Amino acid sequence: MTRHLLKITDLTKEECLKIIDKSIEIKNNMDKYSSELKNKTMLMIFEKPSLRTRVSFETGLEQLGGHAIFYSIKDSPLGRKENISDTAKVAARYVNIIGARVYKRQDVWNLAKYSDVPVINMLDDYGHPCQILGDFQTIKEKSGTLENLKLAYYGDAYNNVTYDLMRMCALFGWKMDVACPEGKNYSPEQEVLDEVEEISKKTSAQVRVVHNAKVAAEEADVIYTDSWMS
Questions:
Q1: SS3 call for 154
Q2: Contact 102/123 with Cβ under 8 angstroms?
Q3: Which of 43, 77, 82, 176 could form a Cys-Cys staple with 207, CB 3.0–4.6 A?
Q4: DSSP 3-state assignment of 90?
């Protein structure tokens, strides 16, 4: 069965740790892995533009010996002559993996539903797993550990980054305070809160939403914020 990465909890904690440790190893031994993805091609479907996402994925594929194809929905027949299911089925016959950076979660889910090759969510309105893995790699490199930490998040909490941060902190058994303004438009979706609560029951994590910046910062090991326009 083909596995996809649509949100961070599509991975276990152990898998996340393996990916992070392997990423650090590759980063420090680039020559050793320069042909790791030889003859592998990734199709990157972009509806929502991004400098960092495109450059990082293209550079990463190139450095590992692979090839990345940039495909802009703006310049494509997707949604007019072709639907998402057709695109997934056709693309999967040519490439080894598909990445998608889109506005709506349903579009990534449909790509995964109809694709015979793995689909990676490069961002939608429900998750941003690659960024979270990169963030936790940075935390590991700077602090030396990913155990028993507290993360304080500041900003708009009604977004993809917050959701996957909450999921990841719950998965790792961390404490996390999400400091955001009051109101539905700034708070996490109830579905995400329920998911995080269920994970936390198994890992003894403490993830909560607060509306006081000073309270969130108490005993925090990591301070995290995000753009209000993402």
A1: strand
A2: yes
A3: 176
A4: helix
Question: Which amino acid, 83?
Answer: N
Segment 41-83, tens digit of pLDDT:
999 999 999 999 999 999 999 999 999 999 998 766 565 667 8
| Under 8 Å between Cβ of 43 and 98 | yes
Each residue's pLDDT tens digit, 174-187? 999 999 999 999 99
CA distances (Å), origin 50, targets 77, 159, 177: 21, 16, 28
Distance CA 221, CA 181 (A): 22
pTM of the model: 0.94
* Residue owning tokens 């997934």: 88
Kindly write down the DSSP assignment for every residue of 132-165, as one continuous string.
HHHHHHHHHHHHS--SS-EEEEES--SSHHHHHH
- The letter for the amino acid at 42 is M
Q: Which residue has the tokens 């708009």?
A: 156
- Ordered by where they begin, the domains of the chain are 8-123 (3.40.50.1370), 147-223 (3.40.50.1370)
Torsion of CA 102, 107, 108, 114, to 10 degrees: -140
10 Å CB burial of residue 94 (0-12, 13-18, 19+) is exposed
Q: Which two tokens stand for residue 163?
A: 């959701």
Looking up tokens 């990534």 gives 108
Instruction: Give Rg (Cα) of the chain.
Output: 18
**Nearest alpha-carbon partner for 91 in 78, 103, 105, 104:** 78
Distance of CA 62 to the CA centre of its chain: 21
